[in-house]
């Protein structure tokens, strides 16, 4: 049981990965007679239940394969379970959490996770994605196709491959320094001097395509007449952006920010390949910290507690974005 | 409408179905057959590498022929190291899934012993005459804190100094270099730095990005040359803190990087540096001395990506000396794998019989040659066909006499990380040797729940 994944994927991909075992063969809903219309409260309840029937298998599966593991993780976070090296584990209450908050390396990881998320997701992917989408609206078709292809390629590359590419870009004999040398600018080992910036850039490089696609779709939804009317009224580019485009795609901004943030919070492979969290702990975000505790030091209980805290950070962000979405309606 | 009654059976049906599915998935092979011995081993994730599969198939045939009516079932686990441990540990938990014989890394065997996963083999070993052929240090590889032995090693690895003869010639250093003390090593590196300025004089793995390589190839190769039991005191069963040997070893690392005798710090802390050492720096003659393991030539063989068959002429080998040249003069660290019998195995007797078949002199020799391992048996180590199988093999086999196994007790991974952190902070110059050593002491004290002894 020890290998039960302690890191419930916070990204939107997690749901899709839920294994789908053979469903119950007779899952077709029994045809219900027309619900009684002369109904009092119980009849309404009954009708509600009846309607819930078709989705119940899905709910059961979700409960078993999604809520189950998360629940089990939540339980493990309160024990001192180890991968190996211990005859039996015991319940330790809040010890793991207390240890985390007293551990400066954990606090360092939280801080770096926030920096990483802020730089790469909120500022980088989001803004750049919007900028690209806006520019592409105006660009000619060949330019649009080409740019789109390049950006999307970065997105579909497996995380580890992207990690190696960017490692090769940033390392001391890498492409970036070659370019800087050519321009007679001082070069340095970016992965060593500015690791969190380097991995943030890597994440921007990799994830911008997603924002670009979301915003392209959103921008296409804006009726041409409104923009044209504003143009006729003499509104310049920035004004149109600020007063028309942004308010109209506000909902997309919220959704995009939420998805980006959740995905960025759980980035592991990219950083692992590029810096392994180093040098020192200078690029060790929460997922890397969690991995080190759970699998390198085999403290599954503690690692799981950290994963739960990561989940908490993710849900905090979600709540903020949900608010953002709601006020706008 | 009888809504409620319908929902409940539906839920029940779904749950039952799922439960049934899960159960059948788990309980695949029942291990009740007293004539079948089930063997789990690590299968390479590279489909082309079938060294172990081929070897075990061969032993299986021999075993089934010698023991009529008995069967061998090979249960390969195809996974990288870290996942292999996890899978194995899960299998060992239940009598339903526990095999009869498992392949265990010496790195984690003590953790699995503490978890109660393995069976002591002393009663078997006492009756097995081949056990006398195993070298003393290797016998301790799978010895637990309780003094019992839980595994039979099937080879090991050792570590030493690799040096470039061409660079040494340019620097005016001897081609048959034999450093006697740490100072000799540093002095040679200083000479290289002065006379051949465009190469890296000496590589010692360091820091967290290098991981266990920093601890074992780097730090422990130094620490075990400073005196007895530098990390763990087996008599007191406690981890050692505050030792002078520890600080001296850190001091060595600090000197290498402070005097710029080692690679550029940012290179040394690059997680992929070890690959570059083997693939670029050594073959291209950019590194003078490298403190590293016996397995390097695996990368330079035919079809291995960095073919470099001339390495045996271009590189020299020297044993890592002890600090001041104190007896026995040289030092090496060893790891490797062992065959162990799970506590929940159904047929332990038959499993041990299989070990005996694997470890006849002829079969052991076949295995060492096939996987370029270093022999831990005296008779194989002295065998000319083994010695001549590969250049360098004699050198590394001779080191087995002065080798040490890690104190790989359950806390070891945490201690190892603490060592890497201490190394890293003196490598970057972020803290003094004194501070780094104090940091280590605190870290070890908390990682081992205060099971420490001042030395």
Automatic annotation (TrEMBL), chain A:
<feature type="transmembrane region" description="Helical">
    <location>
        <begin position="145"/>
        <end position="170"/>
    </location>
</feature>
<dbReference type="GO" id="GO:0055085">
    <property type="term" value="P:transmembrane transport"/>
</dbReference>
<keyword id="KW-0472">Membrane</keyword>
<keyword id="KW-0813">Transport</keyword>
<feature type="domain" description="ABC transmembrane type-1">
    <location>
        <begin position="111"/>
        <end position="321"/>
    </location>
</feature>
<dbReference type="GO" id="GO:0005886">
    <property type="term" value="C:plasma membrane"/>
</dbReference>
<comment type="similarity">
    <text>Belongs to the binding-protein-dependent transport system permease family.</text>
</comment>
<protein>
    <submittedName>
        <fullName>Amino acid ABC transporter permease</fullName>
    </submittedName>
</protein>
<dbReference type="InterPro" id="IPR000515">
    <property type="entry name" value="MetI-like"/>
</dbReference>
<dbReference type="Pfam" id="PF00528">
    <property type="entry name" value="BPD_transp_1"/>
</dbReference>
<feature type="region of interest" description="Disordered">
    <location>
        <begin position="1"/>
        <end position="41"/>
    </location>
</feature>
<feature type="transmembrane region" description="Helical">
    <location>
        <begin position="48"/>
        <end position="78"/>
    </location>
</feature>
<feature type="compositionally biased region" description="Low complexity">
    <location>
        <begin position="1"/>
        <end position="10"/>
    </location>
</feature>
<feature type="transmembrane region" description="Helical">
    <location>
        <begin position="257"/>
        <end position="279"/>
    </location>
</feature>
<keyword id="KW-1133">Transmembrane helix</keyword>
<feature type="transmembrane region" description="Helical">
    <location>
        <begin position="299"/>
        <end position="322"/>
    </location>
</feature>
<feature type="transmembrane region" description="Helical">
    <location>
        <begin position="109"/>
        <end position="133"/>
    </location>
</feature>
<feature type="compositionally biased region" description="Pro residues">
    <location>
        <begin position="19"/>
        <end position="33"/>
    </location>
</feature>
<dbReference type="InterPro" id="IPR035906">
    <property type="entry name" value="MetI-like_sf"/>
</dbReference>
<keyword id="KW-0812">Transmembrane</keyword>
<keyword id="KW-1003">Cell membrane</keyword>
<feature type="transmembrane region" description="Helical">
    <location>
        <begin position="190"/>
        <end position="215"/>
    </location>
</feature>
